[in-house]
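If you are new to this repository, start here. Below is one unmodified record pulled from the training split, so you can see the exact layout before writing a loader.
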Amino acid sequence: MSAPTAPAATTELVVGGMSCAACVARIEKRLGRIPGVSATVNLATGRARVSHPPDVPVSELVAVVVAAGFTAEPPAPPAAKAEPAPTEAEAEPVGGRRLLVTALLSVPVMALSMVPGLQFRNWQWLCLVLAAPVAVWGSWPFHERALRGLRHGGATMDTLVSLGVIASFGWSLYALFLGGAGEPGMTMPFSLLPSAPDGTAHVYLEAAVGVPLFVLTGRLLEARARHGTGSALRALARLAAKEVAVRDADGTERLVPIEELRIGDRFVVRPGERVATDGMVVDGSSALDLSLVTGESAPVEVGPGSAVVGGAVNSGGLLEVRAEAVGADTQLARITRLVTEAQAGKARAQRLADAVAGVFVPAVLAVAVTVLGFWLGAGGDPQAAVTAAVAVLVVACPCALGLATPTALLAATGRGAQLGILVRGPQALESLRRVDTVVLDKTGTLTHGALDVVAVTVRPDGLAAAEAVRLAGAVEQGSEHPVGRAVAGYARRAQDGAALPGVRGFTATAGLGVTGEVAGHRVAMTRPDGPGGLPDPIDPTSTHPASLTSPTDTDLAGSPR
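And here is the target side for that same chain:
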């Protein structure tokens, strides 16, 4: 009997140097040559998810990716103290400067080349001076990646761009120095033909500068789009506390990094702070705002013995919590991991796009060579042959083919996570087009994650509703409780921009409410099921989570939802 096969391990790699879907196909193909290894590479996230036998070390996977002409490394562990790698947004200024210089040099060249009225004596030599830095320095990222791909036996979109720039700039040099285009007074009228009526060769410096200008612009927009689609994971990461106040056995508190928190440690959560990790309340009572974690708009009252979730906001009193889960075992970490796995997968449409892009670049190169050979073989003008071949190269960049699908999936899964919708994978998202019925297994109602006042009831013999709301909003301005914030916001809107009155002697009692003096009134905002209950004239069958009382027995009940 053969020994059972060990379960495959899964490793994630951060891959650098990819520019198009052809790069994705090359990495997946190289990794797939290792027995038992399969890989899914995502161009938009710059990550590779590799399934491999346990006896295949990560170093071997990294070596294969590096041998293919790219960089690769495992992602930094959450507890790493090293500075994080620059994000796409942080890397934008370098590409932005290159794009700015390229644009400043390219626009005059394109204008002079395409508008005969602007062409003065020796204009073509000025264009050459302006175009040379663009063809060399401005296009250097394309030349470098194309050369790297050539050394590793691969062709990418950068190969097409680099060849297009070199061919158009090289032909222009030939035309200027040997083809008669450098003569003083030469003009180049707009024409669909590759040469002037007198046989003088055209220069194509506008193509040599226009191609890198437009592709650099597209790359910058792509980088910003990728950075934007990762906002969901960054938002989830911001929910996690960076430091925590640990309370030792002798009662002293010390502030430590969240990475040093251990299961069983007791930590303190003050009003307005986030719960550092999943745990159990051992002392204190408060209301937790879980809207950013679970989407529930109503605050959750907690006390000794209550379970709490890391990332929740403490809206009331002081809590002492015992840590029950830390690091990757917390609910917030599992949510983040789920979103990451969803964004790393590929939908059927994306796999099809990557498969097409994998053979697209070699096919375009073959077509360009065929066009060049056809023109020359048919006895055509060499300039016309070069022009046709360059046209095939520069119009066939598969940018959208390889990036549009993963970027759209990134945006969808990321926005869904922000709204509380977690997608297990792109296949599930893609199947939504066949959904005609949605069944919600959820108690209560769907909310937008924030409470609001929808009804106000006052005693018939008391203050008017507007005045009662004004007093309630004034005292709730100092409250951190979600109900208090809802009442204060409602009161501000009811004031039509006017400021709410000030409050003196403000006091907040955890689990009960707030009190204060407003405009001569002693105002108390309390729970309807608190010690005082609701006043008799107000219907006790209504659900009113807040009541207001004053020395003149004026009462208010509202329904924030």
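Two things worth knowing about this chain: The chain has 16 helices and 19 strands. The first helix runs from residue 21 to 32.
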